[in-house]
Amino acid sequence: MKSRESIRNKGNPNNVCLEVARYFIAQAYQDGREMEMTNMKIQKLLYYAQSIYLALYDEPLFSNNLEAWRNGPVCPPVYRYYCEFESQQLPIPEVTEINHLTPEIKAVLDEVWWYFGEYHAYQLSDMSHIEFPWRKARAGLPSSASCRNPIELAELKILGKEKLLEIEQKHPLYQKAIVRVLETELHEIEDSDKLINENEIEDWLTSLAS
Fold first, then answer.
1. Could you read off the pLDDT of 17-54 as tens digits, one per residue?
2. Considering its fold, how many domains does the chain have in total?
3. Which residue among 43, 79, 86, 170 has its CA within the 20 to 30 Å range from the CA of 185?
4. What is the pLDDT of residues 63-91, one digit of tens each?
């Protein structure tokens, strides 16, 4: 495995996209998933982080374009920075290399990691291939064809809204919260209007929340 010193000697692009990538790498080491943290996986995490940040704040997390490459979305500066590792495990960053991110940004990145971090790089690549931002940017090119077309921020923002809903629904507290809200609404209905028993109501609420 190549060392951290080998990439440090290449020079530091010193931009937000690289710092975000390092944050995800540090999370992988913290969670014991460092062996699966490759350049390909970092690219897909950057793609989802950009999408979700746009959906939340209506502005990009980082200014660099994401491009619709053959294996999915890629942030070129980060790809070039780690390209010598190819499919190998990426080295853990220094703490000083990720201490400029705001608490607001870290909160978003933690959500992205919680939801997408469990997937393998190839799973994330396959997911991006069926999503409209990557497909639209490639404008009908075969999936095996080379491409450097940028992915539009407007498309990423729409995707981010969809992913936020997915993340919310997967949260362990989501179903309980939805059931509680619906039960409160039902309790406001007059008793004479209730035509089903309590067990049926409970089953119905659970099905709505699933």
1. 999 999 999 999 999 999 999 999 999 999 999 999 99
2. 2
3. 170
4. 999 999 999 999 999 999 999 998 899 99
Q: Do 150 and 199 fall within a single domain?
A: no
Q: What are the C-alpha distances in Å from 133 to residues 37, 72, 118, 149?
A: 24, 10, 22, 11
Same domain, 57 and 153: yes
For residue 65, which of 149, 161, 7, 189 has the smallest C-alpha distance?
149
Q: What is the pLDDT of residues 163-189, one digit of tens each?
A: 999 888 887 655 565 566 666 666 665
Whether 70 is covered by a domain: the verdict is: yes
Residues in the chain: 210
Note down the domain range covering 179: 174-209
Same domain? For 97 and 25 the reply is yes
3-state helix, strand, coil in the chain (%, to 5): 65, 5, 35
Same domain, 123 and 55: yes
Q: Is the pTM of this model over 0.90?
A: no
